[in-house]
Each structure stands twice: as C-alpha cells, then as structure tokens.
Batch of 3 targets.
Target 1
Amino acid sequence: MQQQLGEGPATQVTVTFNNQGTKSTVPVEVGDTVSKPSPNPTKSGYEFVGWYDENDIKFDFTTPITQDITLHAVFGTEVYVNDEEDYVFTGSNYIDTGIKLFDENNYNKDFEISFKIKERVSSSGQATIMNCMDESGTPWPGIVYRITSGSEEEAIANVTTSIRIQPKYKRANVNKITLKRIDGILYININDAGDMVLLDMTSLTKRFNVPVTFGASLNASGNPQRFFKGTLSNIKIKVYGL
C-alpha cells in the first residue's frame, strides 16, 4: 500500500536476499531484526561463508533493520591444498602457492591458512615457514611465521600500516598452526586450542602481488631466501568471498 501524505514515516522496510542472482524479499518492521534464512544456500564445490551487505561486511543478524537493505550470499573454497601428506624442505626447495592474499582481487577478503609442523631441522636463523609479505615494503605488509634467530622460539609477525606484532611460542609446543582473518580481524590458533586475536586488519589498504610461500620467503626481486629445513604436512589455504 502506498504511503499517503500526512500518514507519517513508513513502518516497514524490505530485506532482499541475493543468492547467486536469485532474489527473495522479506518485509520487516522498522527496528526489528530479520531471521537468517534456513537452510543455508549451497554452491557446488564451495562452502557457504555467510550473508554480506553492500559493503562486503558480514551481516550480524542481531542488527535492527531501519532501512531497505540487500544481503548477498558469499561462498569460499580451498584454493590451495598440498596433495603430499608430508612435504620435506631440504633448505633449498620451497612451495610457491601462487595465492596472492593482498593483491587487488583479494586484499579485502577473509582467508584461512593451516599447516602442521612434523619436523624441524633448522635450529637457528630466520628460516621462514609461511610467508606472504614483501620485505621491500616500508613497513612490511602481510604475515610471516618463522623460527626466531638463536632461540627455541617461533614467532608470528604481521605488519599492516605501522603496527608490527610478534608474539612468540615455544617451538616444542607448536605442532599445528591456523591463521585466519574473519571480518577483517586476524586470529591465530595453535594446536586447535582456540582462536586468539592478533590484529585488526580492517584498515589495510596496501596491495601487493606477493604469493603465499611455504619453506622460504621472497626478497624484493622475487627470489627465495631464509629457507626452512624440516617437514610440513596438511597445508591448506582458503579464500572467502569468491
């Protein structure tokens, strides 16, 4: 029914759900919340991540609706999986996944990286285990997990703008590592013990075309350095919002 002059503001708004081009609408009273559609939408070969708004922010279904909005279904997939159960790094080989988390296409997408450390031969030096940062940048952007120099520790370092974080973990206590960015927040999970917040990455604006590598980092010329010696397994990378 059309609103007539003098009737006051509208009391109902519309939430549109866009699932891969198929749209459905739900009328909602102003100030009320909208229910999350059930079951979740599906897409062959992908997993459902959630409903996102026009600004590509994951929608919180406890949010009161005050105006017409459109939410679109977002899916993710494993974009890199190492087929070898055990991958042995000898100090001269490495894996270039080709996945560029911070390029123009992916810089604002959430992701998840996981791997297991089955053996460490390197005992000192900055042998990089996982890296997706360009060391020529000032400050360095991206993420790196490495063995710290001359100690029995390992560290996760992340630099986005002017912030560098480097929490350290006793090497003997680390077997599985999961790094994930959810709604722009970076988390680390050691040995499936639970997610710990590392950094808010929502303000990240720097883009660069450096791929994720395992077993070495890349210098400014794109050549490998800081080789890791040891064995990794179960290497996986997921990028959400594909």
Target 2
Amino acid sequence: MKTNLFLTAALSLSFCLASTAQTLPAYLPADGLVGWWPFNGNANDESGDNFNLFNTGANLHPDRFGNNNQSYWVGNGGSLTYTGPSITGGESFTYSFWMKTNQNLNEFQDWIFSEDGENENGIPTGIWFFFNPFSKNLGIVHPAVSYAGILSCPFPGIDEWHHVVVEGPVSYRVYIDGQLASTGGSQ
C-alpha cells in the first residue's frame, strides 16, 4: 500500500503549503492520503487522520506565494515533529513538500521534519529530513536503518523555492523540481 504524505512544506529553512480549507482540495490525491499539513496558521494535519505536528521553535512565515503565516521557518533550532503511532507504518510512502533555504544559519544541520513513529512491534518506522547549511545538502535519516543517514543530495539553490518529493522505504528516491536528485538506502 502506497502512502502519500503531503507536507507541502516550504523551508526558508521554512516548511509550507499554500492552502486554507477544512475539506481536502481537489488537487490532493485522496486515495492513500494519510497526512496533509497546509500550515494555515498552525501545524495541524487536515487530512482527517489527526497526525498533528509538534512545533519546537519553528516560526510562521510567508509561503512561496507571499501569503503570511502559511509556512514555517525551521532553522536555528526550530523544527516540526510528529510523535505518536507511525504515520507510514513502515509501508511505501511519498512525502511531498516545498522548500526554500538560506545561508543565514548557524547550526551544523537544521531538522526540517521528523516522524518518530513505531510500528505495533515497537520498531522505529519514522523518517527525519534535515538540511546541512555548510554542504547545502538535503539529508534523510531512517532511525530503523541508520542514525547516520540513508542518503544526502545537493540542494539546487539558496533563497529559491523548490518542490521536493521523497519516496521510500524499500529504495529511497529524492526528486527536486521533478528531476531525480538521489537514490539509495533501504530499510
């Protein structure tokens, strides 16, 4: 079963999506949709599954269209985290989000999003996304596989919005702006 997770996030380092609605918009694939975070002033999941994110110091920011409070700045210690039952359950998944980076970061790496779920056997099934401002790489960590990271790929531009899609977990693929950017790792 393929799981679609739409974080549609923007990263300045910010996380974003531009949409406000209580019902799902027509452009979202309802079949298999597990989570959708439009960031319309909060980090709540509006898919109906209640996978709300915990905000640890991330600040609301304008999204890629300039709409205020529609994305999150997650740099310099801020992050969005989900803790609870596993979102993906270790099944195939797709995360899709918008991301923008800047160079005004003072940390080794900035956590973008982390899902710290476990399956019914207590095995970690989460995934963590981070950005390294020094190497300009987007990184992915799957705690059940390796805390050192599954893969890392160069991020194409500073102060520009890019669409990122990550598929996994059997073989990870990262697409940036529709182009395959990296493959590797496995569960």
Target 3
Amino acid sequence: MVKTSKLTDAIFDVGGVLYTLDYDRMFKNFSDLCGKPIEKIKDILYKENILIDFEKGRISSIEYYKAVTPDFECSLSFDEFKRIFNSFLIKRDQMFDLLKKLKNHINIHILSNTNEINAETLMHDLESIPSSIVYSFQTGYKKPQHEIFRIALKKANSDPKKIIFFDDTEENVDAARALGINSYLFQNKESLLTTLDLFGISIH
C-alpha cells in the first residue's frame, strides 16, 4: 500500500542542518592573518552584541566590516573579510542532494538566522532549490521569535498543518510547534528521512 502524504511544504534551517558550522576555523583564519589571539578575534566580531544587530539587518555588511576591522589592526579588504567570515560554513553535500530529491515531492523553503554576508554563500549554494527563503537580516526578527515564523508561513502560502519544519535548536522547534507547524529537531540525515517516511514521503 502506497502512503499518501498530507504535507505540501518543508521548511529547513541552515546552520547545523545544511551546513556544519566550524567557527574555530573562521577564528583561526582571522587570527593567522592578523596575528591576534583567537579570544581577541571573538571579542572583536561579537563586541557589544553587534552581530545580533547584523543578523537583524540593523546594520549592513559594509557597516559591520567598518565597525570591526579597525580592531584587527591589519590590512583586510572587504572581499577578504567576507571570504574569511564565510569560512565557517561547511556545506553538507548529502543534505543538498536530499533537498533536490525532496523538491520532487513537496515545496522546499529556507528559514535562517543569518546576516547579509553569510547569505551570499547560502544563495550561491541553494541556487533554485527553495521556493522561498526567509533570512533574519531581511525581516528584523530572529528565531525563535514568532514573527519570523509567521513571515515564513506567509511566504509558503500553506496551512501550518501541511508544513514540516526541521531545525537543530530545540527552542526554535518549540516556537514553530506553538504555531501549529509539524516541527522536529534535526539530528542527522537518517532521522530526517525516517520522519519524512512517517508522513508518507520516501526518498531513495
């Protein structure tokens, strides 16, 4: 007997789901280039909650660059800064392959707490996979705020009961679930496939 899915859409987080986040790699790259200790690099990049402002779109890429790079005290062009700033994103090819297959069954959407610089890499890698993308820097909100989930639901244009959401943070999963979205904590590809199978979607 063939199972029929009631799902029409799937929303995916990015970091920890589609990408491994290797922050130590990024810190080391900045440290090696500028000759500053890694702890100092962290302080510079995260000073006074500036990254939160960046991820909520309160400041632009160039404003963030101009705010933090003087403290590095080394020659660092905007393009070089962006390259290193994106170096913590390690693409999980198996997950991207899965999304391409899943797209043949339901609509794919992306919901991510991210900034304008990291989004450049995401857009390049995601290409035409998702039907919609919601980035925190474009909305002024971050998960687990309900407002950003409502924006994602509006873009998906579907009943929350027909949507499944995967995120690697329990707090975000709980927030989406409170809005009636079928929400699951991402652990690995295998558990995701098992969950999809329960909803009648089998990916081979």
